[in-house]
Design brief:
Elements: H1 4-24, H2 28-41, E1 49-53, E2 56-60, E3 94-95, E4 124-145, E5 150-156, E6 171-176, E7 188-190, E8 201-208, E9 218-227, H3 248-254, H4 258-265, H5 284-291, H6 296-302, H7 307-313, E10 321-323, H8 333-339, E11 348-350, H9 362-372, E12 378-380, H10 389-398, E13 404-406, E14 429-431, H11 439-448, E15 454-456, H12 466-476, E16 482-484, H13 493-502, E17 508-510, H14 523-530, E18 536-538, H15 547-556, E19 562-564, H16 573-582, E20 588-590, H17 599-608, E21 613-615
Parallel strand pairs: 10-11, 11-12, 12-13, 13-14, 14-15, 15-16, 16-17, 17-18, 18-19, 19-20, 20-21
Antiparallel strand pairs: 1-9, 2-4, 3-9, 4-7, 4-8, 4-9, 5-6, 5-8
Amino acid sequence: MSPVFPMLTVLSMFYYMCLRRRARTATRGEMNSRRAIESNTRALPINVEIVQYAKEVLDFSSHYGSENSMSYTMWNLAGIPNVYPSSGDFTQTAVFRTYGTWWDRCPSARLPFKRTPPTFCSQDYVELAFEEPVYPTAVHILETYHPGAVVRILACSANPYSQNPPAEVRWEILWSEAPTKVNGPQARQFTPCIKQINFPTNLIRLEVNSSLLDYYTELDAVVLHGVKERPVLSLKTSMIDMDDIDEDEDEEKYGCGMDTLNKQFSIVTLREWPTNGYFDKLPYELIQLILSHLTVPDLCRLAQTCKLLYQHCCDPLQYIHLSLQPYWARINDTSLEYLQSRCTLIQWLNLSWTGNRGAISVSGFSRFLKVCGSELVRLELSCGHFLNETCLEVITEMCPNLQELNLSSCDKIPPQAFNHIAKVASLKRLILYRTKVEQTALLSILNFCSELQHLSLGSCVMIEDYDLIASMMGAKSKKLRSLDLWRCKNITESGIAELASGCQLLEELDLGWCPTLQSSTGCFTNLARKLPNLQKLFLTANRSVCDTDIEELAANCTHLQQLDILGTRMVSPASLRKLLESCKDLSLLDVSFCSQIDNRVVLELNANFPNVFIKKSFTQ
């Protein structure tokens, strides 16, 4: 045979691959041109594009606002725009709880999990339901303040309004990109080029990373464009149908194929080689060290190559710290079952965002912890909506060494279930942000968990008397270093006095949006005098904070690094200068909406104290 023919075969394969990639990465203009060609030639029926705003907000990981109002909450993403195209800080927008890197530089910051793939950088998410399932052709995100936080857009095969739950829930990434710095806080319409998918959807998920932002990002609305019938490309356009595209490459790149990951976890028939080459000459410990740099999917792939590497990749020492959050879309009961034999020595486990919509069952979670829970020290379960009272009971029984428990935004756990946490006397960190924990359960936890160092009770709206809670903390939680009381509605100067007297090791205190605290009672000066180790103090939206409070902080809390006094009308530039001169470590000062601090003052302070990030928000 002539050598020309193999070359032609190679060229044809290369051309076919190019077509596949072109079909995957087709631009918005190409999709519009396809519709125009199909309409003009009448080769295919006209497929009218549907444009719709989000009908409902189904789920989210955090928000700046209160659970009992609409200001700064994720629920503002439902419906038509409230603010766009205006720019600035508006209460009618959706705002996440954090921004920048400040939360990673305070006493309550948690150590990151190793082996997190570099492609996963999401910090928060929100899920939106639309009226009509469509094949997406475009997604418009209306950002009104400090844009640039969205890093992933996903589509789900499940219809949230269907009466019949699907046999399989599939997530497909429409667009993904690393965080980028956007110049300027002005409003914009963000329309990334999205990938075509082979199923209709009316459930869209946005994932954000706010680490590069100078302030909170604000989102106003999301617009989904799509067609009811799956786009079939005309042969006259020299393009191919999406049915002909193998999706293995996409699943490997984006990690949303649940079957693919489970196949990697499963045991396969391994070929046995007479020798293992240079690996036979390496110490066992050195091979383990090399493999410790691989992500979990890569470790599972490597385990399928030969028996020697299978032994190394399945060694429980490789799974001492395990984060499954980056793979939330494809973790289910089968995944946990495959991992059981490898996780018998696990100490840190991150299952945040996993298991929703029936992917993980109570029995599957319980079976896993009964085998793998004895050595657990840290357990991350934020936004785990499969969790119920049985799960908390299993955690407290199977994890006797547990020191850190994160139940942030687990709002489906019934109030009575939190009583079980009191059995874990070794707890040092407990995050109950946006949960339904009640007063009785919390008092029991504080009474029996005297080792607590970090406690988050932000947006816990079912606690009736925060003064009683603060009094119990002062009596029992002597080791407390950080306390989050964000948006607690009824704490008074009495509770603050008990807290400051008993918890004198406090380094971080968040009293943002606590309207019952008044500076005239002396509560803030008392804090400054009793808590000299304070590094972070948030008094957000307390309009009564005054010069006396700032001067007491300057005199007593010289280690202060972060201070938020947004919204006060009583603080003058002179007291801020004293604070900045005294607190040499101060790096963040939020004076947004402080009526006496205008832009001229901020510019002057920035010039004299260049190491401090002084934030002044605005509304147009």
